[in-house]
Amino acid sequence: MTTNEFTLLFRRRFSMAHRLIAGDSVKCAVPHGHNETVSVKLEAVDPAPLDGAANMVESFARAKATWHRWIDGHVDHALQLSHRDPLIGYFREHEPEKLPMLLITPGDPTTEALAACMMAKANALFATETSPLRCVEVEIEETPTNTVIFRGVPEHHLDAGYLGLPGAPWWLRGDMSINDL
Ligand SMILES: Nc1nc2c(c(=O)[nH]1)N=C([C@H](O)[C@H](O)COP(=O)(O)OP(=O)(O)OP(=O)(O)O)CN2
């Protein structure tokens, strides 16, 4: 087997809002927004030498189409909340039509949690479309001064049973979902 000598890297900007309620920072517990940039590093599941003809690991357009559709159509302008956040109850009661725009993480929606969710989601999307690629690293620039890089195993950090639901959580499903509400 050939080792992975090529990595494709795609960047996308999105706007978001969140709040962190588990810590003691009042500043972080007030809903606030960031314009963030996510970068994903993609590698071939079965690496092979360039073929001397098309010479591509995968076309850029094919490699990023579904991922960017998810970021642009669902992550962009989502409100990110902990599954324990009482604001979810507010939306259920008063603005249920906006529930699909809540991105819910198990625990606080820190940049670390988002990075782990994004890697899992990217790989679920790639698996569903039988892409030859997998995501090996996610970098999220939350602000010009704060960046998180994740190159681990999402399952080590995300509680898939966070809501006690029978099925797979949204980050493991190869669809456009961002919550399990
Ligand atoms: N490890 C983490 N720590 C914090 C996160 C996070 O996701 N992971 N997030 C926040 C808040 O989102 C906050 O908005 C950003 O933090 P902070 O650096 O305090 O914000 P500033 O933009 O004011 O940073 P400066 O570099 O001082 O401009 C908090 N912590």
UniProtKB/TrEMBL annotation:
Q: Keyword Lyase: yes or no?
A: yes
Q: Which UniProt keywords apply?
A: Lyase, Metal-binding, Zinc
Q: Does this UniProt record's set of keywords contain Lyase? A: yes
Pathway where this protein functions: Purine metabolism; 7-cyano-7-deazaguanine biosynthesis
Q: Name one GO molecular function term.
A: metal ion binding
Q: Which reaction does it catalyse?
A: 7,8-dihydroneopterin 3'-triphosphate + H2O = 6-carboxy-5,6,7,8-tetrahydropterin + triphosphate + acetaldehyde + 2 H(+)
Q: What class of enzyme is it?
A: lyase
Enzyme Commission (EC) number: 4.1.2.50
Q: Which cofactor does it need?
A: Zn(2+)
The similarity annotation says: Belongs to the PTPS family. QueD subfamily.
Summary of the function given for this chain in its UniProt record: Catalyzes the conversion of 7,8-dihydroneopterin triphosphate (H2NTP) to 6-carboxy-5,6,7,8-tetrahydropterin (CPH4) and acetaldehyde.
PANTHER family xrefs: 6-PYRUVOYL TETRAHYDROBIOPTERIN SYNTHASE (PTHR12589:SF7), PYRUVOYL TETRAHYDROBIOPTERIN SYNTHASE (PTHR12589)
What's the protein here called? 6-carboxy-5,6,7,8-tetrahydropterin synthase
